Model the fold of this input.
Amino acid sequence: MTADIFPSYRGRMEYFCLGCGKRFPADELYYTCPDCGGVFLLENLDFDRLKETSGEEWRKIFDDRAATKNTALRGIFRFYELMAPVLEKEDIVYLGEGNTPIVESSSNLTRATRMATAYKNDGQNPSASFKDRGMACALSYLRSLVRANDWDQLLTVCASTGDTSAAAALYASYIGDPIKSVVILPHGKVTPAQLSQPLGSGATVLEVPGVFDDCMKVVEHLADNYRVALLNSKNAWRILGQESYAFEVAQWFNWDMENKNIFVPIGNAGNITAIMSGFLKLYELEIIDELPRMFGVQSHHADPVYRYYSVEDAEERSYEPVTVTPSVAQAAMIGNPVSFPRVKHFAEKYETIGGEDAFHVIQVTEQMIMDSMIQANRNGHIACTQGGESFAGAKRAKELGLVSSDELCILDSTAHHLKFVDFQTMYFENSFPAEFEVVPDQSLSNTPELVISPEKKAALSPEEYTRTTAEKVVAKLGLESK
Done:
């Protein structure tokens, strides 16, 4: 198969309800089961046909495509057959998503933590977060529906704490008419940098009081009662796109997952769902020989999935939503993750293959999240607060004896550091409100120093100002003359 030729293979996709098991055709917009309200997965009924190609052949196909100049195959759809193999080339939207690098931690950070860690920088996606993976798939699917049905208007809607809205608005604006974007945000709970993105992409931005869960209830009501395209992770097409994270990790390490641990913030649970699903597909097709271990991470301010799995006896577990309190990991501050049934579904499959040690959920504190983010970024990374959560989870897993020093911990930094600089500023200025429970480690703090006052500058001639300021810099830095 030539790398630049778009695949001829087409699958047959169906929605599969995790609640009642009923199936629905994939040529319509469904988000939850109309019969029981359960969440969907999308299943390729012709997946077994892919087994006619060996794992070795698939590895070569995907590796060859990594150098393609075919726009439709340059991003996440390099793995076309594994995700949404019902889309035509003309429907695929590519804005540069996917192919984000995995950066091994510096020797200084490795010595400090006595751990082998590496960040997958999903903040280097077009809208600066991992959400672009899901949006590229979901919007490509919507584009195909618009074309097939000759619709003259399709309104997309999402609830968001920032990243989802940025991605949804960006991809919708690229496609343009007849697709239009509306985003609903929790008032005062989104950083200025994140708010600027959907506004800049021309989306209609609506704010409501409360937290993400409140916004989600509003968009669910709209999706249930009006013709709108829901773009939150209830949308099963988004989950398919986010599986590309797993495919890229495996490919980066030449398809060798031995002694690899993946740390992912749970949030609304769509990403960890997708990543587990992706690795399971690779394993089933013998593209990889073993599964990496999966670690979901939650803050103690929003930890319903951790609470569920903290009960050792599976028969005694009971899932209950929690009321969240303020978290620096804003995108993960969700007390009732929509995709929890999906997590449970794939975790059971994961443990069936890899044993009980194949899947864990780790709880960390807000203090650990911020300390870890600052420490990572002081050592050359560009981790967001959720990236700090992943790092904190890896440290906690090592404390608990769940990972060893010779295993590589691959940390998910879901967004770019610059989206969350307000939290860095609060850390450096020691201005966190008490409810965050964060006190800066002064050894990690960093603030600018004024070398000379404006009043002093005004009293000096230009030559005196230059000389005086330079002398102060020399004294501060301990410079020696040439």
The mean pLDDT is 95. The first strand starts at residue 13 and ends at 17. Residues 223 and 230 are 6 Å apart (CA to CA). The chain is about 40% helix and 15% strand.
